[in-house]
Amino acid sequence: MRSNRRPGILLLVPEDLEGTAQCGFANMQDESYRVRISERRMQTARARSETAGSRKLHLEMENGLIEVLGAEMNAVNNRLKSSQSVESFVEELEIILERVASNMTSRVPPRADTMMAIVAEIEEIGWNSVHDLHPDFNNVKFAVEDAAKRSHVVEVDLNMSYPHDPPVCRGATPIPFILRWRDGYTLRNVIEQFEEHLHQFQLLWDVLDDIDQHSWVLEPSVATRDLASRRIAIGNHC
């Protein structure tokens, strides 16, 4: 099986044995940009012990990389706030960098026979499941429902060598969706694997939906399916 992860886009090494900091380089557009991610412990006013403090992640990167990321810096900052560890944020950052790198790559329309094959694969799934389709057939978004009828979107980038090489897939889930690919797979396999991926979050989303409906949620201001935590207001009686 082949992974759809782009190798070498983010190269980091730990600075300590505890894993509270990693530093290295992000490779974008044949340029390398220095990146450092560290964990800081924030202590509350009520308790000053180390165990009582909450953790906050800190990101340092070169201005050149910030310019390359552009509007995606909003997603980077959101993931930085919601990630619970340096390691989990590294995974999120790598996904964002892969998305930016994919968008920067010059997209050449597939050959006519490849486009016809893609159309046939979409027809097998059903055009009613297509959320959006790029005119050059380089990118397609599918609407997918989970077991609780919640709506999701999986985005699929089809490169020039598809289906020989796997597509790059993205979906808003607490854990990144990693596609498993082998010869003979089609877009239907992408949908089936994404549906399987969604299944593991059903109980979590049930709880979060209940919190969103019956609690005063302070953060996040806009809850998306990839955010697995909530900060809520509690009255003085609690």
Automatic annotation (TrEMBL):
<dbReference type="GO" id="GO:0006513">
    <property type="term" value="P:protein monoubiquitination"/>
</dbReference>
<dbReference type="GO" id="GO:0061630">
    <property type="term" value="F:ubiquitin protein ligase activity"/>
</dbReference>
<dbReference type="Pfam" id="PF09765">
    <property type="entry name" value="FANCL_d1"/>
</dbReference>
<dbReference type="Pfam" id="PF18891">
    <property type="entry name" value="FANCL_d3"/>
</dbReference>
<dbReference type="InterPro" id="IPR019162">
    <property type="entry name" value="FancL_WD-rpt_cont_dom"/>
</dbReference>
<dbReference type="InterPro" id="IPR043003">
    <property type="entry name" value="FANCL_d3_sf"/>
</dbReference>
<dbReference type="Pfam" id="PF18890">
    <property type="entry name" value="FANCL_d2"/>
</dbReference>
<dbReference type="InterPro" id="IPR043898">
    <property type="entry name" value="FANCL_d2"/>
</dbReference>
<protein>
    <recommendedName>
        <fullName>FANCL UBC-like domain-containing protein</fullName>
    </recommendedName>
</protein>
<dbReference type="GO" id="GO:0036297">
    <property type="term" value="P:interstrand cross-link repair"/>
</dbReference>
<feature type="domain" description="Fanconi anemia complex subunit FancL WD-repeat containing">
    <location>
        <begin position="11"/>
        <end position="99"/>
    </location>
</feature>
<dbReference type="GO" id="GO:0043240">
    <property type="term" value="C:Fanconi anaemia nuclear complex"/>
</dbReference>
<dbReference type="InterPro" id="IPR026848">
    <property type="entry name" value="Fancl"/>
</dbReference>
<dbReference type="InterPro" id="IPR016135">
    <property type="entry name" value="UBQ-conjugating_enzyme/RWD"/>
</dbReference>
<feature type="domain" description="FANCL UBC-like">
    <location>
        <begin position="204"/>
        <end position="238"/>
    </location>
</feature>
<feature type="domain" description="FANCL UBC-like">
    <location>
        <begin position="117"/>
        <end position="201"/>
    </location>
</feature>
<dbReference type="InterPro" id="IPR044037">
    <property type="entry name" value="FANCL_d3"/>
</dbReference>
